[in-house]
Task: inverse folding
């Protein structure tokens, strides 16, 4: 697989971005988001990086420094947002409280919080598009996880562009790596000798996603592509029957699928 070609084709086929768009890329410091910002810059898009400093000790410090260096070398503007300043608490504290209060796993909490901060800051930066580094493996895992949870409808928004359409006032979230296998992105990032951390997040253990990733280890990239492509055929039907519309959260004003967004639901008692 040619990762650059697949990204370029996905952007064209799904009309993910225009050259005139202000494209904000959510940078975790890992191989996926680093590759996608590099490729989009190379393809001529107007990109800038947005990194949330999660305050996870040395891990975050190294990511921050490496991303500063990478963006500097590639002439890419970078904004770093301090999670503790944004929320008044560190991520570990919030996770510990929510584990006790609502038995929510760390990755769920981290995902909801990151999404909320990224949306808010993308708007502040005047983004037309907010890019994340989600890849084919992430999407195949989602299909399987939702099926095993007995709730295929959870995948109703699965698409290279979230919601499949633009919502006024919000930066549309797009996933140019939607059809790129993780193994190929890893090869790509290494071939480019990106000076980044290649390990997974140290906090990601003991979660349903981690288990699912392990179960899927024996499935080939081609099969993963078929899973994702077949599910994409189902999405319009799910969407038509779901009645789910993206609305504005009545508390914080961010995009939501119900009156209160997931962030406001989980964070209100902390
Ligand atoms: P993950 O949920 O960690 O697999 O990350 C999925 C995507 O979310 C990454 O490819 C990034 O685009 C984005 N992301 C994750 N962590 C961060 C972070 N600390 N700051 C900004 N974006 C992030
Ligand atoms: Zn809210």
Result:
């Amino acid at each position: 697989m040619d990762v650059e070609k697949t990204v370029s084709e996905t952007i064209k086929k799904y009309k993910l971005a225009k050259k005139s768009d202000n494209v904000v890329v959510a940078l975790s410091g890992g191989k996926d988001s680093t590759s996608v910002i590099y490729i989009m810059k190379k393809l001529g898009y107007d990109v800038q990086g947005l990194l949330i400093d999660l305050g996870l000790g040395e891990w975050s410090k190294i990511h921050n420094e490496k991303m500063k260096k990478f963006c500097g070398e590639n002439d890419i503007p970078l904004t770093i947002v301090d999670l503790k300043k944004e929320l008044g608490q560190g991520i570990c504290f919030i996770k510990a409280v929510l584990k006790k209060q609502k038995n929510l796993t760390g990755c769920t909490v981290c995902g909801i919080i990151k999404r909320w901060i990224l949306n808010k800051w993308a708007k502040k930066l005047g983004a037309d598009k907010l890019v994340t580094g989600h890849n084919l493996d992430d999407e195949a895992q989602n299909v399987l996880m939702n099926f095993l949870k007995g709730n295929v409808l959870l995948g109703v928004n699965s698409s290279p562009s979230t919601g499949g359409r633009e919502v006024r006032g919000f930066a549309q979230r797009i996933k140019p790596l939607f059809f790129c296998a993780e193994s190929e992105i890893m090869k790509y990032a290494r071939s480019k000798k990106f000076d980044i951390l290649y390990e997974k997040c140290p906090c990601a253990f003991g979660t349903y996603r981690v288990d699912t990733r392990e179960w899927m280890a024996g499935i080939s990239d081609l099969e993963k592509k078929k899973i994702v492509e077949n599910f994409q055929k189902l999405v319009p039907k799910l969407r038509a029957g779901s009645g789910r519309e993206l609305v504005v959260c009545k508390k914080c004003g961010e995009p939501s699928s119900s009156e209160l967004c997931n962030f406001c639901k989980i964070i209100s008692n902390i």
Remarks:
- The CA atoms of residues 57 and 202 lie 11 Å apart.
- Residues 249, 251-252, 254, 260-261, 263-264 surround zinc ion (ligand 2) (CB under 6 Å).
- The chain is about 50% helix and 10% strand.
- Strands lie at 22-26, 46-53, 78-82, 129-131, 172-174, 247-248, 255-256.
